[in-house]
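---------- Forwarded message ----------

FYI, see the Transcriptional regulator record below. Original note from H. follows.
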Amino acid sequence: MDARTARLIQIPLPALETIFDRSPDTVFFVKDTEGRYLSVNQTLLDRLGLRYPQELIGKTPTEVFPPSLGMGFADQDQLVLSGETLLDQLELHLYASGGAGWCLTHKVPLTDDAGNIWGMIGISKDLGMPDMTGSVYAEVARAVQFIQTDYMQPLTLQDLADAAGITINKLERQIRRIFGITTYQLLLQTRIEQASRLLKTTRDSTAQIALACGFYDQSAFSKQFKAAVGMTPSQYRAFHALQDG
C-alpha cells in the first residue's frame, strides 16, 4: 500500500476484518485502484486455500484465481473502479476445494474528500437454501417446483404466481424473504446451474445448451453466464475439462 492510499483510508480495516472474520458465509475485501487486495477476511482466505492475509495482500484476482475466472473478476473490478456501483449481483463462485456456491455480491467505489476514487470495498454473501418442507412455505414451494421442472420454458412472473396460487407481489415478497433474492434471480440461478451441468457432462454446443436451459438468445446466455460465473460458457467447459483431466 503506498503512502497516499494509507493517508486516504479513513475506515478501520482491522475492525472490519475482525467483524467479517466471524462471518463464515461472507467474503469481505478492499482493493486499490489496480484491483490489488488491501484487506481481506478469513473466509476469502479459506476459499482460496490460503492461511495468511500476507499471501493475498497486494495481489490481483488474476494472480490467485484460475485465469478465466480471475479475468472475469478483474473486469468487474474495473467497472466499479470507474465509478459504477454493483449491487445484488448473483454469482456462482468456484472454490479451491473444487466445490461451488451461489452468492450475492455487492461492490462500491471508495472516494476521498475530493471525490477521487482510491479503491473499492465489497462483500459476497452465500445464499443458503432453506428447508421448504414446512406448511408456511407451501405456496412458494409450488413456484420453486415449477421453476425446477419447467426452467427451459419462457416462464413469466405471472406463470410462477399462478403455479403458487398467489399474486405476483406476494410471490416476490415471499421469495425475497425466504431466499434473499428476487424471483427472476431464482429462475436465473436454476438455469445457470443446469447449463453448468450440461457444459461439464455433455458435448452439446453452446447454442443447444442455451436453448435447453431456457435461454432463447445465445449471446444473452453467454453474457448472463459470464456475469454469474465469471467466465464464458466455453471457458467454463475448458476449465472443468482441465480440472477433470
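H. also flagged this: The domain at 3-126 is CATH 3.30.450.20 (Beta-Lactamase).
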